[in-house]
Amino acid sequence: MPLPNARITFDKFHVIAHASTAVDKTRRIEQKTDASLKGLRWKLLRDRASLTPDARADLDALIAQATTKRTARAWLYKKQLREIPARKQINVVRDMLTQWATNVMRSKVEPMKAVAKTMPASSISARSTPMPLNPLVFQKSRFF
């Protein structure tokens, strides 16, 4: 039974989970030609603040190579995406998400492009009562 007025709600947890999967896919692809990415999986998937100082230094060393490593760019895109739902104004969220998606689509980080394609910023609408985590509401969009 079709529901023409149905809305799909994406909360921050699920959006970031898909972005984390994209970071891991990017790492796996790039690791085939770059052995320096071995052993970085959990450092890339965990929150930077919860890493040990040594692990944080390894992650920082990778991020410093963002111009040459797609895995580093994928991690930066995930970090940017994590910050977007924290905004209060829906128009700011829409603009930031549009800019994020544009940047991702211009990059060569293919797994992250798949995440960007599933979240069309033009279909974000405001909720009458904001939820604690400020989930984004998308109308007529594809689910991950």
Q: Please state the CA-atom Rg, rounded to the nearest Å.
A: 16 Å
The helix content is: 40-55%
Q: Structurally, how many domains make up the residues? A: 1
Order of helices and strands: EHHHHHHEE
Characterize the largest beta sheet: strand count, sense, and whether it forms a barrel. 3 strands, antiparallel
* Secondary structural class: mainly alpha
What is the helix tally? 6
Shape: globular
What is the end-to-end distance? Answer: 21 Å
Order of strands side by side in the largest beta sheet?
A: 1-3-2
Look at the structure and give the mean pLDDT: 82
The total strand number stands at 3
Strand content: 5-15%
For this structure, the quaternary state is: single chain
Residue runs with pLDDT of under 50 for 5 or more positions: 126-144
Question: Would you spell out the secondary-structure blueprint of this structure?
Answer:
Blueprint (H helix, E strand, L loop, with lengths): L6 E4 L1 H20 L9 H5 L7 H11 L6 H14 L6 H17 L3 H8 L6 E2 L10 E4 L5
Helix pairs in contact: 1-4, 1-6, 5-6
What does this structure look like?
The chain is mainly alpha-helical. It has one domain. It is 52% helix and 7% strand. It has six helices and three strands; from the N terminus they run E-H-H-H-H-H-H-E-E. The chain has a three-stranded antiparallel sheet. The longest helix is centred in the N-terminal third of the chain and has 20 residues. The radius of gyration is 16 Å and the shape is globular. The protein starts with 6 loop residues before the first strand and ends in a 5-residue tail after the last strand. The relative contact order is 0.19. The C terminus is likely disordered.
